[in-house]
UniProtKB/TrEMBL annotation:
Coiled coil: none annotated. InterPro entries: ARM-like, ARM-type_fold, HEAT, HEAT_type_2, PP2A_Regulatory_Subunit_A. PROSITE patterns: HEAT_REPEAT (PS50077). Residues 246-270 are annotated as: Disordered. The gene is Ppp4r1_2. This is PP4R1 phosphatase. HEAT repeats lie at residues 115-154. One of its GO terms (molecular function) is protein phosphatase regulator activity. Keywords: Repeat. It comes from Dromas ardeola. GO terms for cellular component: cytoplasm.
């Protein structure tokens, strides 16, 4: 019964945590018995079972309960199979969603070598716009996961494709994550490539894309500021924040220096 398998998957994470805490007593129980079930249920015929399996997998990754060898030898291969060009549409959409969510939980080396090539392929998927939209919505997270070099070499060309996609929802998703993408690039790429691209989104024929671009304008401009002087940084949840300086904390007074730096940088950017 699918309901039994779904309920089983919901119990996997707490059992895994228990086994982790009792590892001297059960050193290999999770890897020998539970991990194979999680991997198998990612391809279950029932949609609810698969979703429960995906949620369990993400919890296990977030809690750092899966060994690096199992991630590379068991989890990644099945996701690559499910996201292959000839894969079933429903399975492919689910797989790309997991890949995007996993990116921030795995090591940079694993993401770059095992998942990034497939992510780049999926960004150009001509069959399913849902796949491209998931890629666009999570583009900033993937850039942050692989770092500046891989972003500029492999991801920026794909970002240009998505920003000119014929589906306006794709361009809107790109506008919404523009700041996160810009934050990962060098000042030169930001100025010479991303600035003209952002102008094209602000001038888009679709008002929803233009609205999203204007809402991202301030955060995008902020990426031109010098972080050491402006105190700008990206939180773990992806939001932009300002770190108060030591002088501000000690004096407990409002200093306008951050705003001045930001305005000066935005002026230079134009």
């Amino acid at each position: 019964e699918p309901t039994v398998r779904t309920e089983l998957m919901e119990q996997i994470p707490p059992i895994a945590i228990f086994l982790q805490e009792s590892r001297p007593k059960f050193p290999t129980a999770f890897f020998e018995y539970l991990m194979p079930i999680v991997v198998r249920y990612l391809t279950d015929v029932n949609n609810q079972v698969r979703k429960a399996g995906q949620e369990a997998l993400l919890i296990l990754l977030e809690q750092d309960l899966i060994a690096q060898s199992d991630i590379e030898n068991k989890v990644c291969p099945i996701l690559l199979d499910l996201s292959a060009p000839d894969s079933d549409d429903e399975y492919k959409v689910e797989a790309v969603n997991i890949i995007c969510k996993m990116a921030s939980m795995l090591s940079r080396t694993t993401v770059e070598h095992m998942l990034l090539p497939r992510f780049c392929e999926l960004c150009s998927d001509g069959k399913l716009f849902q796949v491209r939209k998931i890629c666009a919505a999570n583009f900033g997270d993937v850039c942050n996961a692989v770092g500046q070099e891989a972003t500029e070499r492999l991801l920026i060309p794909k970002f240009f494709e998505l920003c000119s996609d014929s589906v306006w929802g794709m361009r809107k998703a790109c506008a919404e994550c523009f700041m996160a993408v810009s934050y990962t690039t060098s000042p030169e790429v930001r100025r010479s490539k991303l600035s003209p691209l952002f102008i094209s989104l602000i001038s888009d024929t679709c008002r929803w894309v233009r609205q999203a671009a204007f809402q991202s304008l301030g955060p995008f401009i902020s990426t031109f500021a010098n972080p050491s002087s402006a105190g700008l940084y990206i939180r773990e949840d992806g939001t932009l924040s300002i770190r108060p300086s030591t002088q501000d904390v000690n004096s407990n007074s409002c200093q306008p220096s951050n705003n001045i730096t930001l305005m000066s940088s935005s002026t230079n950017a134009t």
